[in-house]
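User: We ran a pulldown and think these components assemble together. Before we commit to crystallization trials, I'd like a predicted model of the whole complex to look at. Sequences follow.
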Amino acid sequence: MDKQLRLGLAGLGTVGSSVARLIERNRVELAGKCQRGIEITAVSARDPNKARGADLGSAMWFDDAAEMARSAEIDVLIELIGGADGIAYEAVTAALTSGKHVITANKALIAAHGVELARLAETRGVSLNFEAAVAGGIPVVKTLREALAGNRVSHVYGILNGTCNYILTRMEREHLSFEACLKRAQELGYAEADPTFDIEGHDTAHKLAILTSLAFGTEISDEDIYMEGISSITTADIEAADDLGYRIKLLGVAQRTESGIEQRVHPAMVPKASAIAQIDGVTNAVAIDGDFVGEIVLAGAGAGGDATASAVVGDIADIARSIRVPALGRPADLLTPYVRARMRAHEGGYYIRLMVQDRPGAFAAIATRMSEKGISLQSIVQKDLAEPTRARDENALKPVILITYDTMEAGVREALELIEADNVIVGPPQLIRIEKLY
Amino acid sequence: MDKQLRLGLAGLGTVGSSVARLIERNRVELAGKCQRGIEITAVSARDPNKARGADLGSAMWFDDAAEMARSAEIDVLIELIGGADGIAYEAVTAALTSGKHVITANKALIAAHGVELARLAETRGVSLNFEAAVAGGIPVVKTLREALAGNRVSHVYGILNGTCNYILTRMEREHLSFEACLKRAQELGYAEADPTFDIEGHDTAHKLAILTSLAFGTEISDEDIYMEGISSITTADIEAADDLGYRIKLLGVAQRTESGIEQRVHPAMVPKASAIAQIDGVTNAVAIDGDFVGEIVLAGAGAGGDATASAVVGDIADIARSIRVPALGRPADLLTPYVRARMRAHEGGYYIRLMVQDRPGAFAAIATRMSEKGISLQSIVQKDLAEPTRARDENALKPVILITYDTMEAGVREALELIEADNVIVGPPQLIRIEKLY
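Assistant: Here's a predicted model for the assembly, 876 residues in total across the polymer chains.
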C-alpha cells in the first residue's frame, strides 16, 4: 500500500461536512478500493466549533486556507469555499504552486480561471479535479474527460440548475405562479434569498462554460454566453406548452456550428416524451452527443451536500490511485480559443406569445409581419380570456400563441420588432425556443 | 510525449471495424488528449481481405490471436472475438501473462472468468478494461469503478438488452404480438437467428453479473441469477400495464439485502412517469443508487459498432494516459464471495394474469387462495372477451388481472400453485413484478 493520502479541507459548510462524514463512514471500503489510507489531516473553516457530524478532532486547524494550502501537512487541497476570486483563488493557486493536488466544487472559480489553473497544475505535475463543480453527483466531467475521449462532440446540453427546474416543475404540476413557486423554493432552501444568480441563468452559464471547454477543447468563456432566465415564464406559457405536447425547461446548450461554438442558456420547450422532459424537481441531467457514442444522457442529484460529496470523493479516489488527466481533458496549450457563434444565426422552431388588443385588423397585422419576414407558422392558437357571450371590447387583451416552423432567429426578432412598432400588442412578446436537439 | 501506444486488434467484425475507423478519423484529437500517438500495429481476423472502412495496410497480420497477444509488436490487446472460452480466453490470458494490457468487449468472458483475469492483470501490473462489455457506449464501468468510489451502493438495475427493449417497445406502440416483433427485430439485425440468448435474459444476466461485482465488491457469479425472459409477455399484459399506468421492461436488478445480494433478470412493470420507462427501442439505461450520490441514471446506445467502439477507445485512452485501476474496482483479494439472497424472499407488488373458466365459484376460489396466503389485492380487473350480450359459457375463458399490494414472493407462488391445483384456471399464470426501486 502507498502511504496515506492527506487531505486539507477548506470550507466546512454543507458539502464540506458531507465530505468529512463520507470519508469517516466509508473509510475502510475506500482505502481498499484505492489501496491507500485517506485522511483529513487539516481543516480551515470560519467557525471551528460548528458541529459537523464527523470527528475532525485530530485534524490540524488553520485560520488561513492559503496557509493550509502551502503547509507540509497535506497532499491535496479540497476547496469548498466558493467564489471566483478572493480566498478560494488564493488558496487554490497556493496549493498548485506548492505542488499539491487540488479538488474544488467551485464552478465560479473554474469558469473564471480554469485555463490558467489547469496550466499551473500541469506545470507542477499535479491534478486539478472539479467533478463537483458541474451537476453535483453526476460524473459528467469524468465522462467527457475520459470515457468519451475518442469522440468528437457535436453538442452538449442539460438541466444544470435545480432551483429553476424545481420552480418550473411546481408551476406545471400545481398551476402556481412563478412568484409563488420561487417563494416556496426559498422556504425549502432550494433558492437563495437573492435568487437572481440561479433564476436568471448565471449559475447554468458557469456550468455550461466548463462543459463547453471539456466537450469541444476550447478555452473557457463564461462571458460570451447568450442568457435568458425563467422569471418571465408565466402559467399561460406552461399551459400552452402542455397543450402543444411540450414541457418548459431551463437548458444550457453548447453546440458546434460552422461559425464557432454556440453557448446559450434559456427556457426551452422540450417534447414531453423526451428523456430530458422527465427530469423533475431539483434533479439535473446532461446529454452529450458524440460522433461515435451517439447521444448519452446522465441524470441525478445536481446539488445537495451528500451528492456533491460523492463527486469530491470520486476526485479524491482518482488522486489516491494516481490517475492524472489534464484538468480540461487535454493539455492547456492544445485548447483552442473560444469562437462564439452568432446567436442570431440560431435556427429552430419558436413559440411566441403575444398579448393582442382585440380590435379589427390586429391579427392580420401580425400575420403580415411574420409573412414579410418569411416565417411560416405551424400553428396559431388564440384563447379568449373573456366570457364567450360578451361583446367585443377593444380594450380587452387576448393571448395569441404562434408556433413557427424551423426558421432563423434573426427573422423572428425582426418580425417581433415590427409588430411592437405596429402597436397591436401590449407588453413585450414572449419568445421561447423549441428545442430539437433530441 | 510518451512513446506511441501500439494496439493489437483481435476480431474485425462490426465493433472492430468501428474501432479502426474511430482511431483513423479522430487520431489527432486523441493523440492530443492522451499526449501520445495511438496506432493499430497488429490485427488478427478470420478474413484479412474484408473491407472495413479503415486503412489497416500497415498493420501486421496474425492468423492466431494468441500469437499476436504474445508478440513484441503490441502493448495492448483489444479482444473483440467473443465467447467465454476458446480463442478469446486464450488470447486474453496470453496477453496478460506476457505483461500486455487487455481491453475487451466480451461480457461472456468477463462474466465467466473476470475474477481470475483481474487477478492475473494485477499480478502483471497491467490493465484489464471492459467498458464495452456492459451497456455499450454508456460509461457505467468507469462510473462504478471510479466516479462512485466513495459510495456504498444499495442497488443497481437497468435495461441492458436492446433486443428485448426493442421488442417490448414495438409491442406496446403497435399492438403487435411478441412473435411479430421478434421477426421484425431479426429482419433489422437487432436479434440473432437464434434469439434465445437475448430474449430469455442470458445476455442481461451476463452484464448484470459484472455490474454486481463492480457495485458490491463481490466475486462475479453469473450462474446464481434468477432469470425470466420476455417470450411469455403477451399484448394482453402490455395493454393491462398501460391501463394501470405502467410499462413492461426487461430489467436486470442487483440489490443488497440482509441475506446477501439479490440478482434477478425478469420483465417488470415500471411506472410510466419513471425515467426508466422512457427508455425506448434499442437504448440501454442503468440506474445506480449510492448512499451519498443518491440515484443516478445513465442512458445511451447499448450496442452497435460505433457506440461500442467509443467505449473501447475510452479504455484505450485510459491506458495511454497510464490510468490504472483494479479491473473490478478493488484488488481481487478484497472481493468478497457472492452470497445469493433467496429470491423467494423478494418483496414487492405483483401483477398476476390468469385465464379463468367462466363458471360459478371460479373467482371465489381464486380470491380465497390469495386471502389464505395473506395477500392483499390492490385491484382486480376482469375483462370479458365475449360479446356482452352472450349467455354464460362455461367453456369460455376470461382473463383476470390481479394487482397485489407489497407482499412476499413466496406467498404469491404458493397461492398460484394452489389455484392451479384447484383447476379453475387454464394455462400457467402470468406473474410480473411491479418494480418500486425508483
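The two ends of chain B are 47 Å apart (CA to CA). That may be worth checking against your pulldown data before setting up trials.

User: Thanks, that helps.
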